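Lecture 7 notes: from sequence to structure.

We start with a single chain of 275 residues. Read the sequence below before looking at the structure.
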Amino acid sequence: MTVGKAIVTGASRGIGKASAIALAKMGFDVAITARTMSKEDQSPEPSGLSTAMLPGSLEETAEIIRSFNVQAFPVYMDLIERDDLVPTAEAIIDSLGHVDVLLSNAVYSGPGNYGRFLDNDLDGVADRIFGNVTAQMFFLKPILASMVERGSGTLLFMTSAAAYEAPFAMPGKGGWGSAYTVSKGGFHRLAIQLGYEYGIDGITTLNLQPGLVATERVRIVRGPVENVASLGVEPEVIGEVVAHIAFNISDYISGETIQLQKVAKELGLISSTDL
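Now the structure, written as tokens:
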């Protein structure tokens, strides 16, 4: 018997994959979305900073999820394909039956994440803002509506320090670019706003700040081991914390931002020297 139904976007690799697997271990049936359905769909890292291939696929994630005797529903989704976002969400709701938890983890991937403002093509900036803000709202709307109808639901937004802090390095040298920070700022505020609007309907929304995580993409685009990537925690640590929060959601206040590495330390998943 499952403990609930969850959706994780951007689950072919990194934090999304680790979170989906941890939720499955906790007993959730999990619908997972990404653009990379199989190994044959793998493509180079899209920022343009590297030609290296990104590992991982939804098929691989789904296989691991099913090993925990729960259901996995891998679904193709591209944040830029506007007309498909709502139908995809509706199809996932039909497959799961209902949705208890949505982890909005997917981000738009393309040139401009790590560029200075004057170096960015504005069409690319517009795509990033659409993918990281507007597309999230398209996909979210039918899911939130179904949660409100049931009188309960958890919305977890994988935010970023880029939403509210100054960069720790220049764009292209480990730091984020202006297009990314603007888009993540809007995404971050959406969680706070929805918590205010729909708390009375039984909906809990949280911003989850993972800190620096040594995902496959981070290792590729942020330089050699001696640079930024070496400082991140493993995605599996963040996944375990996400699952813990989803299972213990009543311990949290809707609208707040949770520092996931702090929770990981409290749970004994990492030590002070890992931070």
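Confidence is low (pLDDT under 50) at residues 224-229. Keep this in mind for problem set 3.
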